[in-house]
């Protein structure tokens, strides 16, 4: 472990800074800086694990290394998804992103100094436009959830209407972010529907946009064509939130009639992190291009006729009147889109199709085997799914997940907190990193847990063990 941060501030320095902004000194003042974070979301280390007095640097490094070893997630077989996916990142991606001219760069306002960064943005926009089947894309926003919210704001600016209709199968976090955004518009509503049929049979007045996720939060494939027909009848904007990897096997949403396609680039060469940073993409039709938030990079020619790149149609508040700006706050995830651009360049169209197909095959193979176990059933029987699937377990999900974790398996995302109607629901995901051995272990372990079979490990701890080997071995 290498410590990179050196904090030179003494307690008196910190107290002086707190006093300068009108806060109490000492720990009370430091705590007040985080008052906006609900207590339920804070998870401080128990004070018993931290030294009560100062430590020399060597001892501090030793302590932090010991604490870091408690994070064992990276060594476990991962079947978790729900918006953050364990996918393979080629070594070249991080090597190029680690070059200092990229990771120290900021906003490329001076094109003569920023051709490399600008070209990356242009190439990224081109790739996203091709993937989504639309005319143009921006050079990113903060993340996938913000992209959905910004798309809703776009729809409001285009239609001047104030009703937003969304399916319940859109990521709950994305819906929450969008609700926060649209509340600022005044008399607006974000209405949620259980399925496509319920949405298309609702009141059609004053609808600004329909929001759908493809594949949806549960991995299912939605009927975009039916929603396009509804939007045509109501003159509403169709917004599709899409996983970019899924576009290796699913039709581009733009070709199915989407007006705006958004998503998160985390699966495209961005490693899993504790909460990010990720990056949101937005693509749209030419007639709506001027309503895109964030930065757009265009190709031009210099005085000698050579290709060059520059920011264009800059509609941020730094450049035009605030009331005319498309977004008064948007973060450009330049380093993340660099990684996505390098990743897509390396894998290419056929590589992306191969990765998506591999994920689909392995998820279907695993779910077929899991649902052969007593009491395990799919929640959405008969609905096509891609590389995620929601299943019901016959035992409390959290107990099952704890038992799986003890055997080195991250069994999936429990649905109860996000969807209380599925108290024993579990979202299971496979990617190209899910090996046949991982799937065999999962089926064997879950079979033992559900049957209540236990053995004692050599370390004396009790764990679940399948009485026999799985009937069908995975050969993918």
Mean pLDDT, rounded to whole units? Answer: 88
Order of helices and strands: HHHEHHHEHEHEHEHEEEEEHEEHEEEHEE
Radius of gyration over all CA atoms, rounded: 25 Å
CATH topology heading of the largest domain: Aspartate Aminotransferase, domain 2
Largest sheet: 7 strands, mixed
Identify the CATH architecture of the largest domain. 3-Layer(aba) Sandwich
The CATH H-level homologous superfamily of the largest domain: Type I PLP-dependent aspartate aminotransferase-like (Major domain)
* Model regions low in confidence, pLDDT < 50 over at least 5 residues: 455-476
Q: Which structural class best describes the helix and strand composition?
A: alpha/beta
Structure in words:
With 476 residues, the protein is an alpha/beta fold. It has two domains: 77-87 and 347-464, Aspartate Aminotransferase, domain 1, CATH 3.90.1150.10; 91-343, 3-Layer(aba) Sandwich (Aspartate Aminotransferase, domain 2), CATH 3.40.640.10. The chain contains 13 helices and 17 strands. It has helices at 11-20, 26-32, 57-68, 91-97, 100-103, 115-132, 144-159, 172-183, 196-200, 224-234, 334-370, 397-406, 436-451, and strands spanning 77-78, 136-137, 163-167, 189-193, 207-214, 237-242, 260-264, 280-284, 296-301, 307-312, 377-378, 388-392, 409-410, 413-414, 425-429, 454-456, 462-464. It has a seven-stranded mixed sheet with strand order 2-8-7-6-5-3-4, with helices on both faces. A four-stranded antiparallel sheet has the order 11-12-15-14, with helices on one face. Helix 10 links the parallel strand 5 (207-214) and strand 6. The protein is globular and about 70 Å long. It starts with 10 loop residues before the first helix and ends in a 12-residue tail after the last strand.
